[in-house]
Automatic annotation (TrEMBL):
Family to which this protein belongs: Belongs to the PurS family.
Pathway(s): Purine metabolism; IMP biosynthesis via de novo pathway; 5-amino-1-(5-phospho-D-ribosyl)imidazole from N(2)-formyl-N(1)-(5-phospho-D-ribosyl)glycinamide: step 1/2
A Pfam family this chain is assigned to: PurS
The species this protein was found in: Brevibacterium jeotgali
NCBIfam families: phosphoribosylformylglycinamidine synthase subunit PurS, PRK05974.1
Coiled-coil residue spans: none
PANTHER family the UniProt entry points to: PHOSPHORIBOSYLFORMYLGLYCINAMIDINE SYNTHASE SUBUNIT PURS
Gene label: purS
Descriptive protein name: Phosphoribosylformylglycinamidine synthase subunit PurS
Length: 88
């Protein structure tokens, strides 16, 4: 079984209220030094068999047509999961 990871982030020009709230929370906890926080989405897609170029292409299509909102989000990456990600 293979696994594909899709990362989606808000476009840079879009306000990110969740990221802002997380940044404020970090400061309140005394965890300073972060100049900004952006919150995105991470999807793990399991497939039968190995990850192929065709499977990655289908995952890219899913990412742009369903997993992200192209008006406000960018698909940052679509890739095969590494060993650490597969064991989760």
């Amino acid at each position: 079984m293979g696994r594909i990871v899709v990362e989606v982030m808000p476009k840079p020009e879009i306000l990110d209220p969740q990221g802002k709230a997380i940044g404020t929370g970090l400061e309140r906890l005394g965890l300073s030094g972060f100049s900004g926080v952006r919150q995105g989405k991470l999807f793990h897609l399991s497939i039968e068999g190995e990850v192929t170029a065709d499977a990655l292409a289908k995952a890219r299509e899913a990412a742009t047509s369903l997993l992200s909102n192209p008006v406000i989000e960018d698909v940052v990456s679509v890739r095969e999961a590494d060993d650490a990600e597969v064991s989760r």
